[in-house]
Amino acid sequence: xxxxxxxxxxxxxxxxxxxxxxxxxxxxxxxxxxxxxxxxxxxxxxxxxxxxxxxxxxxxxxxxxxxxxxxxxxxxxxxxxxxxxxxxxxxxxxxxxxxxxxxxxxxxxxxxxxxxxxxxxxxxxxxxxxxxxxxxxxxxxxxxxxxxxxxxxxxxxxxxxxxxxxxxxxxxxxxxxxxxxxxxxxxxxxxxxxxxxxxxxxxxxxxxxxxxxxxxxxxxxxxxxxxxxxxxxxxxxxxxxxxxxxxxxxxxxxxxxxxxxxxxxxxxxxxxxxxxxxxxxxxxxxxxxxxxxxxxxxxxxxxxxxxxxxxxxxxxxxxxxxxxxxxxxxxxxxxxxxxxxxxxxxxxxxxxxxxxxxxxxxxxxxxxxxxxxxxxxxxxxxxxxxxxxxxxxxxxxxxx
Length: 400
Known about the structure:
Layout: E1 5-7, H1 14-23, H2 28-32, H3 41-45, E2 55-60, E3 74-78, E4 82-88, E5 92-99, E6 102-106, H4 109-117, E7 122-125, E8 128-132, H5 134-142, E9 151-152, E10 155-156, H6 163-174, E11 183-189, H7 200-214, E12 216-222, H8 223-231, E13 239-244, E14 249-255, E15 258-265, H9 269-280, H10 284-293, H11 304-330, E16 341-346, H12 355-363, E17 372-377, H13 384-397
Parallel strand pairs: 2-5, 3-11, 11-12, 13-16, 16-17
Antiparallel strand pairs: 1-7, 3-4, 4-5, 6-8, 7-8, 9-10, 13-14, 14-15
Helix pairs in contact: 8-13, 9-10, 9-11, 11-12
């Protein structure tokens, strides 16, 4: 469906950029051969394996902030809860994130004037204003209801007919077309769900087509593998990377940087929020805010809500570990690994205090076909997938 109108504070409107991308026919082979500016040579030639040592400096996209023009490889994490862009700087990795959510309000000139005056990021379609990103959460809380998602359980949501347009708008709020056509952009994709709904192939293809129209050369990486690249350089990229996000848990067993086994289960933070909210009569958006700012798994429940959060977090951990036991034990691809390997946890739903300890404690009851040396939380759990995707993009960019 055509987007009728899009509003942004950029000089070129988001609507014009979306329409231009739809019309663009890009020859990626010729783009890859384009000349690069000498000023970016140093960052392009930097060894990707050194990137894991760099500090991640993260920020949320602010209202009225203009999207950036990338001048080097880009890592992109399109998660159920957040969309995160990672770029390499001389001394650090810089990430910018936007909430992957939207909220609709009726069309009116008065409302439009207020939204523009307050630099609220939105677009107009079918006589509705689609408020996207962190602003959507503010509106949902004001109306005591939930935001809507363009991605459900880790994959593009078939229930939201404008989901693809929302994802495109969110990406364009973070980055513009690259300075050098053909720039490498690596984005994370889920593993195939062992049970559940949605198509990873469709999800990947839609995102890849859009990124190509932006002028990038797109490549994809499994989310769990991205976590391995981000966190396990000291272990020769051997171990199990787990991304526990809003819509699903992604698991990757890697051996010397080769993804031996990948899969996902469609349960995550959204399930915890909605399940806990349903038993205490609270919108999932409010449960999410409390969970992220106040909740701890290190201490016992203190009220109905924290009791419910403990129950559903325990359920998530149990289902994730049982899936690991089942999938890894059934596989004939597990290599003979001479020593125990680490597990690294990442994703927004792994961040409550005490989660790692609870995961490690429960793991003792599960029989895995590989020995585990340690369980630890990623250095920056929310940004690990985007960082790993950036490392892969840098590796692809590096001259042979």
